[in-house]
Protein backbone atom coordinates (compact mmCIF):
# COMPACT_ATOMS: atom_id res chain seq x y z
CA UNK A 1 0.00 0.00 0.00
CA UNK A 2 1.29 3.47 -0.87
CA UNK A 3 -1.34 5.44 1.06
CA UNK A 4 -0.41 7.19 4.28
CA UNK A 5 2.49 9.07 5.74
CA UNK A 6 4.80 6.27 6.91
CA UNK A 7 5.79 5.13 3.43
CA UNK A 8 4.99 1.94 1.50
CA UNK A 9 3.68 -0.99 3.55
CA UNK A 10 1.92 -4.33 3.23
CA UNK A 11 -1.24 -4.61 1.13
CA UNK A 12 -3.31 -7.19 -0.72
CA UNK A 13 -4.52 -7.33 -4.34
CA UNK A 14 -7.43 -9.60 -5.25
CA UNK A 15 -8.84 -10.35 -8.70
CA UNK A 16 -12.60 -9.97 -8.26
CA UNK A 17 -13.72 -11.00 -11.75
CA UNK A 18 -12.73 -10.42 -15.37
CA UNK A 19 -11.44 -6.85 -15.78
CA UNK A 20 -11.82 -6.02 -12.08
CA UNK A 21 -9.50 -6.13 -9.05
CA UNK A 22 -9.48 -4.82 -5.48
CA UNK A 23 -6.76 -3.51 -3.21
CA UNK A 24 -6.78 -3.69 0.56
CA UNK A 25 -4.28 -2.29 3.02
CA UNK A 26 -3.02 -4.72 5.67
CA UNK A 27 -1.63 -1.99 7.96
CA UNK A 28 -4.18 0.82 8.14
CA UNK A 29 -2.44 2.28 11.21
CA UNK A 30 0.20 3.52 8.73
CA UNK A 31 -2.44 5.89 7.34
CA UNK A 32 -2.82 7.80 10.61
CA UNK A 33 -0.76 10.79 11.73
CA UNK A 34 0.29 11.44 15.31
CA UNK A 35 -1.55 14.79 15.29
CA UNK A 36 -4.88 13.11 14.58
CA UNK A 37 -7.51 13.70 11.91
CA UNK A 38 -7.03 17.48 11.87
CA UNK A 39 -3.34 17.08 10.96
CA UNK A 40 -4.26 14.43 8.36
CA UNK A 41 -6.82 16.83 6.83
CA UNK A 42 -4.40 19.76 6.69
CA UNK A 43 -1.69 17.56 5.11
CA UNK A 44 -4.18 16.09 2.61
CA UNK A 45 -5.41 19.59 1.73
CA UNK A 46 -1.87 20.80 1.10
CA UNK A 47 -0.93 17.73 -0.98
CA UNK A 48 -4.22 17.37 -2.90
CA UNK A 49 -5.09 21.02 -3.45
CA UNK A 50 -1.82 22.89 -2.81
CA UNK A 51 -3.68 25.14 -0.35
CA UNK A 52 -4.39 25.65 3.32
CA UNK A 53 -7.84 25.86 4.87
CA UNK A 54 -7.25 29.57 5.46
CA UNK A 55 -6.80 30.05 1.67
CA UNK A 56 -10.34 28.84 1.00
CA UNK A 57 -12.77 31.65 1.69
CA UNK A 58 -16.13 30.26 0.57
CA UNK A 59 -17.87 28.21 3.26
CA UNK A 60 -19.60 26.02 0.63
CA UNK A 61 -16.24 25.15 -0.92
CA UNK A 62 -14.79 24.32 2.51
CA UNK A 63 -17.71 21.95 3.15
CA UNK A 64 -17.29 20.18 -0.21
CA UNK A 65 -13.56 19.74 0.31
CA UNK A 66 -14.11 18.39 3.83
CA UNK A 67 -16.73 15.96 2.48
CA UNK A 68 -14.26 14.72 -0.14
CA UNK A 69 -11.58 14.18 2.53
CA UNK A 70 -13.98 12.23 4.76
CA UNK A 71 -15.25 10.18 1.82
CA UNK A 72 -11.80 9.25 0.49
CA UNK A 73 -10.15 8.64 3.86
CA UNK A 74 -12.89 6.38 5.26
CA UNK A 75 -11.96 3.51 2.95
CA UNK A 76 -8.37 3.14 4.21
CA UNK A 77 -7.28 2.39 0.65
CA UNK A 78 -9.70 -0.54 0.15
CA UNK A 79 -10.57 0.19 -3.44
CA UNK A 80 -12.01 -1.61 -6.46
CA UNK A 81 -10.76 -0.95 -9.98
CA UNK A 82 -12.68 -1.77 -13.17
CA UNK A 83 -11.46 -1.66 -16.76
CA UNK A 84 -12.91 1.22 -18.77
CA UNK A 85 -13.83 0.30 -22.32
CA UNK A 86 -13.41 3.29 -24.59
CA UNK A 87 -15.93 4.02 -27.36
CA UNK A 88 -14.75 3.55 -30.97
CA UNK A 89 -13.28 6.47 -32.91
CA UNK A 90 -14.79 7.69 -36.17
CA UNK A 91 -13.77 10.39 -38.66
CA UNK A 92 -17.39 11.65 -38.77
CA UNK A 93 -17.17 13.11 -35.23
CA UNK A 94 -15.92 16.67 -34.78
CA UNK A 95 -14.70 15.75 -31.29
CA UNK A 96 -13.44 12.19 -30.99
CA UNK A 97 -14.99 10.06 -28.25
CA UNK A 98 -12.84 9.18 -25.25
CA UNK A 99 -11.88 10.35 -21.77
CA UNK A 100 -11.87 14.05 -20.93
CA UNK A 101 -10.45 15.68 -17.80
CA UNK A 102 -11.73 18.82 -16.12
CA UNK A 103 -10.94 20.63 -12.88
CA UNK A 104 -13.89 22.27 -11.17
CA UNK A 105 -12.94 24.21 -8.05
CA UNK A 106 -14.01 22.37 -4.94
CA UNK A 107 -14.90 19.21 -6.88
CA UNK A 108 -11.30 18.81 -7.99
CA UNK A 109 -10.40 16.61 -10.92
CA UNK A 110 -13.30 15.04 -12.81
CA UNK A 111 -13.13 12.60 -15.71
CA UNK A 112 -15.98 12.17 -18.20
CA UNK A 113 -16.23 9.65 -21.05
CA UNK A 114 -17.72 11.10 -24.25
CA UNK A 115 -19.47 8.67 -26.60
CA UNK A 116 -21.83 9.01 -29.56
CA UNK A 117 -25.00 7.10 -30.34
CA UNK A 118 -26.14 8.13 -33.80
CA UNK A 119 -26.37 11.93 -33.71
CA UNK A 120 -26.64 12.01 -29.93
CA UNK A 121 -23.58 12.74 -27.74
CA UNK A 122 -23.46 11.20 -24.28
CA UNK A 123 -21.21 12.04 -21.33
CA UNK A 124 -20.71 9.51 -18.53
CA UNK A 125 -18.99 10.53 -15.29
CA UNK A 126 -16.05 8.26 -14.58
CA UNK A 127 -15.08 9.97 -11.31
CA UNK A 128 -17.65 11.02 -8.74
CA UNK A 129 -17.99 13.71 -6.13
CA UNK A 130 -20.33 14.33 -3.18
CA UNK A 131 -22.96 15.93 -5.46
CA UNK A 132 -22.97 13.50 -8.41
CA UNK A 133 -21.48 10.00 -8.06
CA UNK A 134 -19.64 8.21 -10.85
CA UNK A 135 -21.84 6.61 -13.50
CA UNK A 136 -24.67 9.08 -14.24
CA UNK A 137 -25.02 10.01 -17.89
CA UNK A 138 -25.79 13.36 -19.48
CA UNK A 139 -27.17 13.59 -23.00
Describe the structure.
With 139 residues, this protein is an alpha+beta fold. The chain has two domains: 72 residues, no CATH class; 53 residues, no CATH class. The protein has two helices and seven strands, in the order E-E-H-H-E-E-E-E-E. The strands form two sheets. The chain has a four-stranded antiparallel β-sheet with strand order 4-5-6-7, with no helix packed on it. A three-stranded antiparallel β-sheet has the order 1-2-3, with no helix packed on it. Strand 4 and strand 5 form a beta hairpin. The chain is flat. The model has no long low-confidence stretch (mean pLDDT 81). One of its GO terms (cellular component) is SCF ubiquitin ligase complex.
Query: Which geometry do the CA atoms define?
Result: flat
Helical residue percent band: 10-25%
- The oligomeric status of these chains comes to single chain
Strand content: 25-35%
Radius of gyration: 18 Å
Give the termini distance in whole angstroms: 38 Å
InterPro entries: FBXO31/39
Keywords: Ubl conjugation pathway
GO cellular component, one term: SCF ubiquitin ligase complex
Pfam families: Cyclin_D1_bind (PF12014)
Amino acid sequence: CMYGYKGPHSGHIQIVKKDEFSTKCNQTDHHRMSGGRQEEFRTWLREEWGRTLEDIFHEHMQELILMKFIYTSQYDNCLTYRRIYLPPRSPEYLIQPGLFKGTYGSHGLEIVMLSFHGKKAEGTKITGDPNIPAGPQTV
